[in-house]
Please model this.
Amino acid sequence: MNTNQYAKTYEQEAYALLKTLAAIPAPSNHEEKRAAFCLEWLRNQGVSQAYIDEAQNVVIPFGVTQENPVAVVMAHMDVVFEDQEALPVREEEERLYAPGVGDDTANLTVLLMAARYLSQSCAVPRDMGVLLVCNTGEEGLGNLRGCRHIVETYGSRIQEFTSLDGSLTGLVTKAVGSKRFRIEIHTEGGHSYGSFGNRNAIAYMASLIQSLYAMKVPNHGRTTFNVGRIQGGTSVNSIAQQCEMLYEFRSDSEEDLRIMDEHFHKAIEYYSTKGIRIDVKLLGERPCGAAVDPARQAALTKRCQDMMSRYNGGIHPQEKAGSTDCNIPLSLGIPSACFGCYTGQGAHTREEFVERKSLLPGLSLGLDWISSYFTFSGKET
Model:
């Protein structure tokens, strides 16, 4: 059975799997429930070689030895939401709604279905071993934990890397690097009336934020920054003793990242002279890309574009930069690309949805892409 036939035959089963997965909570750094489900599902489908590694990735090796080169295809299990209980899943005639249903649960479903298809088809890797990975820590403060572990483990053995993340029309081939910080300010605080005049941590934080936002960003590439969260204080009649915020900057230019880092630390140094305590913690760091062999990267990109256009209505996807699991291999010169297997909207919101009509072509695309690394004997289990 070829990939298109398989996708059509098991379309409804894949849809049921997506609904089940979408309800399983998987905040970054706490993907244990989803990882356990994926491992159990794979083993129940006869994919007996699957295992969970030290980074809580679910790893599915095909033809991987101690020394041979490998190709990696991964889809991340985590979502941006901190829910510990079941996530809400809602069906409409043309859409499936759930927080994280597209990013990246739809693509994770495709990866799992591909692992089963390869196992049942007695597929054999063509030129190198293949690692399929349901990985951890792609979102937010996960800091690409799962991907880092895979790349550290296999290093230069990795010949090319694909992340299933995003939509049927998006193709990421360039890395947007970033740094993410937690900044905490402490002052003496006090009663709003009796201690009026004491320093207020919220006021100092507001001033620091204003200073950071006054910067004109460098322009060697595309560079952005953001304060994503701020909290502190005790009550309306208390001078705040403590305030903290989350801050990030990102760029597709290594030089711009350096300039942003210098500006940030100069601002912190300036406010530290005001007699207040400022604690800074680096929460995450994602690298930009390094020099990748242009011929190998171009070949991988063209294969992605050609195959994607077969399943997305003939749209020729344009290359773009993004912050994905590909940041790690790209920073080490490994040819890498990131694309997805659905269409939808609302990523990183609780109103996220996938278009149900996109799931079959997306499943076919994912099966076709992963199967391109294999030969088939014609036997099925």
The first helix runs from residue 3 to 9. Residues 56 and 288 are 25 Å apart (CA to CA). The first strand starts at residue 51 and ends at 52.
